[in-house]
Amino acid sequence: MTKRKITIWGAPGSGKTTFLAALYIAVTRSKLGWSVVPKDDAAIERFSTMTAQLVEGREFPEVTSHLAELDCRLVGPPRTQRRPWFRRAPVAESTNVDLSLVDMPGAFFGTRLSSEPVDLLTGSDGLLFLFDPIREFQSGDSFDYFHRVLYSLAYRTMASDASTRLLPHRLAVCVTKFDDVRVLATAERLGLVTTDPDDPYHLPRVDPQDTEELFTALCERSASGNGDMLLSMIRQFFRPERVRFFATSAIGFHVDPARRVFDPDDVQNVVPSEEGHRIRGAIQPINVLEPILWLADQLSLDG
Amino acid sequence: MSEAGTRLRGTLSSAVGTLRGPRHLNVVELGVAGVTTFDVHRDDSGTPCAATGLMLPWRELGTPPERRRIVQAAGGVSDEAVIIVCSAPGEELPDLAAAWLAEIRPGSVLARIPGLPVAALLREVLADEPLQQPYGLLGLTRDPLGGEPRPAAVTVFPAGAARGATTEVVVQTSGQVVFAVLSMTEGQPRPLTIRVADLPPGRHEVRLVLGGPGSVEFVSSGPFVQDDQGWADLVVKAWPLIGTHGGRVHLIVGLETCGHRELVARRIDLVRRVVSEVMAGTTECLVSLVPYAAHSYNWQVPETAVRPRCWLASPERALTALERLEAEPVRPDGYRDAAQLEDMLAEVVTRLGEGSPGRTVLLTTGDRPPHPPGRHERLLACPNRYDWARQIAWLERAGVVFGAITGRNDPIWSVLGASSRARTDDGNVTRLCADLGLATSGLDRIPFPLIEVAP
């Protein structure tokens, strides 16, 4: 089995570590039949600690200060394999994808860009870019953490293959903090919000095919006015069929634990606390597993 | 006046008559010399008035005239009603401007009347407008049970009264007396006319003549002069203190009990001082104490409902309740950006719905804003979905007087401290008590006439 490397990339505070911490919960809550199995002691320890912090402590994991590589196996639901006519019955086999999820501090992608993150991104098969619209609204610096990395990646790619400026990677762009009232309100204003009929709480979602529109609208509210260039750069450097947008929330919306219903008037699952912020109720990740599955699926096609 | 002029007068009258709240009527005069606009609206007292914009000469509107500048000179494009009067029909520029304005505002009224003095016509229309609110005269009235005379507003002109209406009152005076007529606008009466008369001691007949909305003249044996001693400020301040249920006051204290221990202790101490001042004064007072804290939003910490510690209790019992409250541990800080203020208001509204003896004062002591009833960018919704704005509107309609002790300047504290506000870091509550009519009524500083016979 070929091991696929997916690197998570984004500005400081964009929620990279929280995204990874929520992955375990997303898999557990998902009805898609997948599971994540850590492949070494370090990965077990890291996944367990982060998950416990979220679920039991209702706290956000600490900001990553060093590079962490988590080796795990995504085990999918059994797929029925077609067999030659002389075999008596079809055989069900699990879909397994070995992944190495790389979490790096956001500062690695900043103004003093070293070769280490670029090496890692160049060597990755899939890239998961986390765009934090609230940070963009307040600081407007996503572009700073994006264009340096992208230019370095493009330079290396062109150095090995001068015939193309397009990167070979698959890119999942996750618009994070979808649970924030301002992000949800933008999606609602654009008429992009739907619900999954199988979701017992009917939590808001945005279909991946509509998320680019949400991303564009949120970029327009960038504090620096540079947000709109993010989309231009994505179009410049990635093949359109290799990019997909997801409206993501690592912790999801608040669901009243007593009434077990989602109330559109009371959506926030984060409350201010002495330490900063605290998670209010149960964690219902939205589009955390899906981008990983999409990347894994796309990479298996490449394979 | 020509037939067209009479028709225009009728149109202006009905347009002014339908003006309500923040709606404006834009009257545009297109004359030989240029464009003049009149912004007709109602002021806080409900009196219709017309602000006249400067006349803009045609030469300043472009050569040749520019459509955009003419539209701008005529008040721009808005949703407000527009009446266009071309007082120089046949002239090129007024005709052209009239056609442009009528095109851009298809719902507007266009009248072409040569030489019509629009400003004078508008003045007449406004003066002839019948009153939309009753007008009241402030004075002292005798207590039918034989107590001290108490301040009250006596209706002198009912809603619907028009220019030329007269009414008479008989007053008892001695020396300098303040005659104040108010527009009895719901919630917030506004002083319209304040006159000072130096009448000899004894009974006097005073005739009041309505000159139109906002204009009342007094006729009696002595002269009435303009107020030049600042009585208007005192009247405005004193108005909320005028009750209709005798001298008794119901003081409701909403007290925020979350936050830093020292701050909570400080708030309790200030409330204690207020209650002590009330006890030392002459006003009969009943006290209700409604503490509130932070909503939980934490499944491990149960929510505590807002309940009064005492309701319609004597000041002594209220002091005991405060003592008990002080001895309790400070409530968890909880959600730090807001507090159960809206729950406190809802509880007060529910209780007041069952009746309140006398004038009611709500003294809110705290810092945090209320939670919104629904989704909000910054604050979580109230778990009970109480709407603080609706509760406050109810209390305002019920004539409740608002006072506050706070260290914050958020807009909500301007509402909760509408009649008086003291700062938490300032230990002096004497002025607050006086403003709220808790210790002494500020009204006794105003020499109102004693009204013997009302209309």
Distance between the termini of chain B: 37 Å
SS element count, helices of chain B:
11
Radius of gyration of chain A: 19 Å
The helix/strand order of chain B is: HEEEEHEHEHEEEEEEHEHEEHHEHEHEHE
Q: What is the β-strand count of chain A?
A: 13
Task: State which percent range the strand residues of chain B make up.
Answer: 25-35%
Major sheet of chain A, described briefly?
7 strands, mixed
Structural class of chain A: alpha/beta
Write down the oligomeric state.
Answer: heterodimer
Outline of chain A: globular
Q: Distance N terminus to C terminus of chain A?
A: 10 Å
Order of SSEs of chain A: EHEHEEHEHHEHEEHHEEEEEH
Mass-distribution shape of chain B: flat
> How much of the sequence of chain A is in beta strands?
15-25%
Structure description:
The complex is a heterodimer of chains A (303) and B (455). Chain A has 303 residues and is of the alpha/beta class. In chain A, 35% of the residues lie in helices and 24% in strands. Chain A has helices spanning 16-29, 41-55, 115-122, 133-138, 142-160, 181-189, 208-219, 228-237, 289-302; strands at residues 3-10, 35-38, 68-81, 91-103, 126-131, 170-175, 193-195, 204-206, 243-247, 255-256, 261-262, 270-273, 276-279. In chain A, the strands form four sheets. Chain A has a seven-stranded mixed sheet. In chain A, strand 7 (193-195) and strand 8 (204-206) form a beta hairpin. In chain A, helix 1 (16-29) crosses helix 2 (41-55). Chain A is globular. Chain B has 455 residues and is of the alpha/beta class. Helix content of chain B is 27%, strand content 30%. Chain B is built from eleven helices and 19 strands. In chain B, strands 7, 8, 9, 10, 11, 12 and 19 form a seven-stranded antiparallel sheet that branches. In chain B, strands 1, 2, 3, 4, 5 and 6 form a six-stranded mixed sheet that branches. In chain B, strand 13 (249-256), helix 6 (261-280) and strand 14 form a beta-alpha-beta unit. The longest helix of chain B has 20 residues, at 261-280. The radius of gyration of chain B is 28 Å and the shape is flat. The model of chain B has no long low-confidence stretch (mean pLDDT 86). The chains are: A alpha/beta (303), B alpha/beta (455).
